[in-house]
Amino acid sequence: MASGLQLMKITGYTDGEFQTPFKGKPYTVMINPDTIKWQRNIEYNNRQSQDSSTTSQTYKHTPSDRLSFDMVIDCTGVVDAKRRNMAKEVKALESVIFTYNGKIHRPNFVKIQWGKNITFKSVLKTFNTSYTLFKPDGSPLRAKISLTFGAYVSCKTRKKLDNDQSMDLSHYVTTVDGETLPGLCKKIWDDYTPYIQLAKYNDLNKFRHLKGGRKLVLPPILQQQ
Predict the structure, then answer these.
(1) Nearest CA to 38 among 177, 150, 175?
(2) What separation in angstroms does the CA of 192 have from each of 26, 33, 161, 217?
(3) Which of 148, 15, 130 lies closest to 69 in space, CA to CA?
(4) Proportion of the chain above pLDDT 70, given as a percent
(5) Are 98 and 125 in contact (CB under 8 A)?
């Protein structure tokens, strides 16, 4: 492994708050994905009034985010001389993200981590395997695994997210490139002044021109009397 290279890690959890790790080891990819697709949608109802020639986009709901990528398992020994057993590699990945866990009566909850900017708490949606290289006896040496995960938010957290935009409740947001902390405070609380407290809480050293894709916690902040 090249110096400083961070490999994507996929960890299973037995609770929707992502506090209790699955007893098995997290799965570390052999080769980082070339591309990651983070999909977000907003759904609207198309309504057309009788006196209008165009439809009105009335907000319906915001579906869960989706994260999808392809990962390569290479058991030729070129990538990692210690990881040459394809069946073992696939089983290890399956145990973390796909296999039914009898203790919780469902597959594990899954957290995907890569570097400082990508942390995705989720459940598996699709798991497709394509074998692309074989030994003379037909045993696979290389596989492409196509994975799709749906963001998971527990009922406890969902209640906070769905509640009114109150300063005595926690809120969770994902930043957009160029966004500012004062702007976020204004949008959530209709008050830009708590941005310094927000920066300290999330260990940020700047409050303007934020990088996109960072998850921030907007904690309860008491309004000044």
Answers:
(1) 150
(2) 40, 38, 20, 16
(3) 148
(4) 84
(5) no
